[in-house]
Amino acid sequence: MELKKEKYLEYFEKSEALLKAADHMIYITFPLIKENRLLKKIIENIGEGAFNIIMSVLEHEQLYKRADISQDLKVNIEVFKRCSRRFNITAEETETILKVLEISEKHRESPFEFIRKDKLVMMSDNLKTESIDLEQLKRYMNIIKSIMFKVKAIYDEKKEYEFSQRSKFRQ
Question: In the chain, what are the domains?
Answer without folding.
Answer: 7-101+135-157 (1.20.120)
